[in-house]
Automatic annotation (TrEMBL):
NCBIfam families: PRK00823.1-3, PRK00823.1-5. It comes from Microvirga arsenatis. CDD domains: PCD_DCoH_subfamily_b. Its EC number is 4.2.1.96. It is an enzyme of class 4 (lyase). Keywords: Lyase. This is Putative pterin-4-alpha-carbinolamine dehydratase. The keyword Cell membrane does not apply.
């Protein structure tokens, strides 16, 4: 899987909801804030199953109601379409659960 081209980046990345480039690394990041630990960890469990099915795995950490996610494709040493797809899946699965 090749890294995203410049034109793919300018098309795909701004269309993502709330994701930002990581400083000094070819990766994207987002903080998800839920009502409580149960909502956060339930979402993580569902995302984990989806990520495993995609064979594409997030870097993430959880503290109470907060989940900090970083996505990058390790095999490509940078962003690929898989990261965009997983970001979209995560956003869909968080719909109605995250604080705004
Ligand atoms: C062998 C296995 O398919 C690879 O290591 C997969 C697994 N999950 C992965 N997840 C992520 N984020 N990047 C990868 O390059 C990657 N590669």
């Amino acid at each position: 899987m090749p890294r995203l081209t410049d034109s793919e980046r300018s098309e795909l990345l701004p269309a993502l909801d709330g994701w930002a480039m990581v400083e000094g690394r070819d990766a994207i990041t987002k903080r998800f804030v839920f009502d409580d630990f149960n909502a956060a960890f339930g979402w993580m469990a569902r995302v984990a199953l989806a990520a495993e099915a995609m064979n594409h795995h997030p870097e993430w950490s959880n503290s109470y109601n907060r989940v900090d996610v970083t996505l990058s494709t390790h095999d490509a040493k940078g962003l690929t379409r898989r990261d965009v797809e997983l970001a979209q899946r995560m956003d869909q699965m968080a719909a109605g659960l995250v604080r705004r």
